[in-house]
Amino acid sequence: MNYLEEELGISHRSALARSLLSVAAIVCTVVESLHHGRQKCWLAVGHSVLTGRQGRVRTKTVKRASRVLIEKYYPRLTLDFHTNKRIIDEVAVVPSKRLRNKISGFTTHLMKRIQKGPVRGISFKLQEEERERKDNYVPEVSALDTSATGLEVDPDTKALLESLNFDNIAVNVVVPVTAVPERSGRRERRNVPGAGRS
Q1: Does the predicted model carry a pTM greater than 0.85?
Q2: Which residue, 18, 77, 113, 121, shows the most beta carbons closer than 10 Å to its own?
Q3: Which residues cross the membrane (predicted)?
């Protein structure tokens, strides 16, 4: 521990104090209130002690705020960061520009993920309707109904069914296709140790 203290130039107490401060600083409460007749999302956030400017380290604050914003304002949000940044400026009170940009960046990221499929932790009307529509879908022809076409089996499977007294199942015997290895016009070269190149 002494080596680290000397190398980094910080004492054990200050490192502990710094980590406690950073945990205490990244506390977020999302409070809904009516502001001039329309809903606003208030984000109260402490200043972060962390000074690193590395990308993609998103705190729970940013993620939670993005999810709340998407649930409320999904029809207005887009796949463009700059448009989302202006929308978040209008509908939310965010204490700093840096935090606003982080929230809008993660919101844009989630919007792109939503385009591909449902995202865990986000539930909004359009996604619920899409899920319900997929659950209620009934195909016209069942994949399990083999009465119309019959099962396609190879001769060995047909013999097996006959030996088990399942002759009443309608099956179509299909000759299995064997894969023929491709041959190129050139002769294959083998890596033989000690052989020289010709």
Answers
A1: no
A2: 77
A3: none
pLDDT tens column, 111-167: 999 888 878 888 777 777 777 888 888 878 777 776 666 778 888 988 998 899 887
Average pLDDT over residues 31-41: 39
Interacting residues of 79 by C-beta distance below 8 A, sequence separation 6+ = 108, 111, 112, 115
Range of the domain at 71: 27-135
Q: What is the pLDDT of residues 186-198, one digit of tens each?
A: 666 667 677 666 5
Residues 69 and 152 in one domain: no
* Same-domain pairing of 121 and 38: yes
Q: Does residue 163 share a domain with residue 116?
A: no
Domain count along the chain = 2
156 vs 52, 152, 171, 176, CA distance in Å? 66, 12, 12, 10
Q: Tell me the DSSP string of 22-77.
A: HHHHS-EEEEEEEETTEEEEEEEEPPP------TT---HHHHHHHHHHHHHHTTT-
180 domain-assigned:
no
Distance in Å from the first CA to the final CA of the chain: 63
